Amino acid sequence: YSYNQSKPCRLCEDIKYTMKLSAALALIALTGANAFAPAAKAPVATELAMSEYRTSVRDNVDVGVGGPLAGGAGGRDLAEIWDNSSPVIVQGGSLRTWSFANPAIESVQVLLKTEGRPLDADVELWQGPDNTPHKMRVYVEDGALRTFNAVIGTPRGPNTVAIRNIGQLEFPLDAVVRPDRDDGLAAGIASVATRSETIQGGALRTYPFNPTVDSVAIILKTDGRPLNARIELLQGPNNNKQVVELYTEDGLDRPFFAIVETPGSGNVVRVVNTAPVEFPLYASVDAYRVGGGGDWADDGLMIGRAF
User: Fold this and answer.
1) Cα–chain-centroid distance for residue 287?
2) Whole-angstrom Cα distance, residue 159 to residue 156?
3) How many CB atoms lie within 10 A of CB 184?
4) HSE (CB half, 13 Å, CA atoms) of 57?
5) Cβ within 8 Å of residue 278, ≥6 positions away
6) Rounded Cα gap, residues 81 and 184, in angstroms
7) What is the DSSP letter of 296?
8) Pair 108, 180: CB distance under 8 Å
9) 54: Cβ contacts below 8 Å, ≥ 6 apart
10) 111 near 81, Cβ under 8 Å?
11) Which one-letter DSSP state was computed for residue 6?
12) Helix-strand-coil percent breakdown of the chain, rounded to 5?
């Protein structure tokens, strides 16, 4: 028997064929098994859901975007602000504080009301030890009919807002203190401001409004000097319905925004610059919400309209 190298070995060809066939069968079996295996889920990015508002210290609030007051007129409607907030009850003679550690919060809303009883409170802004750059004394004859609504500047945090109810124990009040966004209450007040006039130190200005005006927007500021003023809502001769005594160490850095509700007729807003003559202020007082209040008198009788 002689081995011929020109022709391949028959045994070697059979071995190669058997190996190829086994590999093909194994591949088919593996593919069929994978068809019944569950498909792998794509990775999903998850993040920790955090409450936008905390009970007392709000240092993680997104400023200027999102939130329950962003978009539309939600941030400018007082009723919606109360509905979307959890008021804190401040009993007579007690003190409550709200801290804002986030330096991006440049202004906060301060809203106060009662169940129809008088409202008498001190509102202060604390920034560091023994530093009170903003403070107010607020009096309202009827805290349900005329709620107190203001925006105070809080640049360069951290800041703390302190509200002390200086009324008797029988006169509690509800307080809401929350960050103000770019389209919030201050933006709504500024949007209706049409004119601004200078009030020299020791001078005063009066702004009468007709009965159709339901609320008035007020802006007070200076050119960087301290701001000392008194805002009064009169309804009749020497009949103060609401009084705010205001102090701000820098009226340009911390301007004062407020909405004064003016139900009924005969409403006059009076702004008094209680500072010396060297400290003028700039005031803007305009109608904020106009309704149909002029058709009704205080006793509910119809005036000037035939059925």
Assistant:
1) 21
2) 8
3) 25
4) 5
5) 201, 225
6) 10
7) B
8) yes
9) 60
10) yes
11) T
12) 15, 35, 50
Assign 14 to helix, strand or coil: helix
Count of CB atoms situated within 10 Å of the CB of 87:
14
Which tokens go with 162? 């302190």
pLDDT per position as a tens digit, 129-139: 889 999 999 99
Instruction: Classify residue 70 by its DSSP letter.
Output: -
Instruction: Kindly give the pairing relationship between strand 159-165 and strand 227-235.
Output: unpaired
**CA-based nearest residue to 222, from 248, 241, 194, 193:** 248
Give residue 171's identity as a one-letter amino acid code. F
Strand partners, 205: 271
Question: Tens of pLDDT along 177-189?
Answer: 999 887 788 888 9
**Beta bridge mates, 93:** none
CB contact at 8 A, 61 and 53 = yes
CA pseudo-torsion sign 181, 185, 191, 196? negative
Please state the pTM of the whole predicted model: 0.70
Q: Are 276 and 201 in contact (CB under 8 A)?
A: yes
